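Please, structure for the following, as tokens.
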Amino acid sequence: MENEIIGQTLSVIAMALMFISYQVKDQKNLLIIQSIGTGFTAISFLFLNAMSAFLLNIVCIIRNVIFYFQNDKSKYSRTIAVVLAIVMCSVGALSWQGYHSLLIIIALALNTFFMSYGDPQLLRKSIPFTSTLTMTHNIIVLSIGGICSEFFSILSSIIGIIRYRKKQ
């Protein structure tokens, strides 16, 4: 019971950080805030005994660091995204906890591709789909904080899409 309380508390902190991350305009700042939030998310899954999600979120932190230091216009971004997606699929397969693991594997691999473009608006537009997959995973593993986090990520990304849309 104590582990569940700690896990839920950490996921609420992660939720707040993710909400903030979608409100920043700059890709590098978004990656910094998301990496910290992803760290809290990973540790929360560890406490909730969702090892597949824990390990995949660790890979996401590594992904964020790589994309942070990469030139936004790099022609290698897609190659790195493919390699990271393969790593995510491998880690997900090795830590498989049931078919719900597939939801988070797909969501995080797709999220990696969207991040590789270096376009915060494109990333925001992908969140409603990828977060829905992750939210479904969180419902299955009973992560209340994770469910709320994904709901607020979807909401925050929509707000960010509207705030930063190009004026026509």
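The chain is about 80% helix and 0% strand. The mean pLDDT is 89.
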